[in-house]
């Protein structure tokens, strides 16, 4: 069997090889944006995410997975790009914020799903295509590792506690239950918090979960395919 074309390897990872892990990673990427006060204010401004977190998070995931699956230049992809471009026109959403959101939605699924070098290369190519379609500057560096490094620098400069960010986190944390084995679903907020790194916990003013819970959370979410 011939290997998939380079850009298709990213779609194969998130849609077929490890879709559940990729969805957890995408959810964590979404959550990362809440730690940037400017983004949190925009997301909370409509009230839709806090009021209907399951529907909004599901819609965001469906949009990104459809874009990854169909491609940026497909008819479906162009419709989604138009929706994303409309977000760019919201007051307060500048180019750097949009680049950060796109980086989160590309880097986080691949990292959580432990993508191969080929899949990471494909994800970087997808991010470049999407940035071009949105008329944004290309992601920093040609590799996903360089984009991830830029993300960390951005987060060091821009992460900060905010009421909007904390409210959004508490609204979406229960949604991680869908990614947990049945008996653990009722503990979804605690398990989800255990997946957060120190900068995110600081932004949401969450205590550091004990080591056994952090280890159990990683195991529980990585048991999914």
UniProtKB/TrEMBL annotation:
Q: What protein is this chain from?
A: ER-bound oxygenase mpaB/mpaB'/Rubber oxygenase catalytic domain-containing protein
Q: What is the species of this protein?
A: Kitasatospora saccharophila
TM region positions: none
Q: Which InterPro entries match?
A: MPAB, MPAB/Lcp_cat_dom
ER-bound oxygenase mpaB/mpaB'/Rubber oxygenase catalytic domain location is: 35-219
């Amino acid at each position: 069997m011939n290997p998939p074309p380079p850009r298709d390897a990213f779609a194969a990872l998130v849609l077929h090889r490890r879709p559940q892990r990729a969805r957890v990673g995408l959810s964590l990427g979404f959550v990362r944006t809440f730690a940037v006060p400017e983004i949190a204010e925009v997301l909370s401004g409509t009230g839709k995410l806090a009021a209907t977190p399951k529907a909004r998070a599901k819609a965001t995931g469906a949009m990104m997975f459809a874009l990854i699956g169909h491609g940026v230049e497909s008819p479906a992809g162009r419709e989604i790009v138009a929706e994303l471009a409309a977000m760019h026109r919201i007051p307060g959403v500048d180019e750097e914020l949009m680049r950060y959101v796109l980086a989160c939605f590309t880097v986080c699924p691949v990292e959580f799903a432990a993508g191969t070098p080929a899949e990471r290369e494909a994800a970087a190519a997808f991010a470049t295509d999407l940035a071009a379609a949105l008329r944004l500057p290309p992601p920093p560096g040609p590799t996903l590792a360089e984009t991830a490094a830029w993300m960390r620098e951005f987060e060091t400069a821009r992460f900060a506690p905010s009421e909007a960010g904390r409210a959004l986190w508490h609204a979406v944390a229960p949604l991680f239950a869908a990614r947990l084995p049945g008996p653990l679903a009722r503990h979804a907020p605690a398990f989800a918090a255990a997946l957060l790194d120190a900068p995110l916990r600081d932004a949401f003013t969450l205590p550091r979960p004990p080591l056994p819970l952090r280890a159990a959370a990683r195991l529980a979410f990585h048991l999914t395919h």
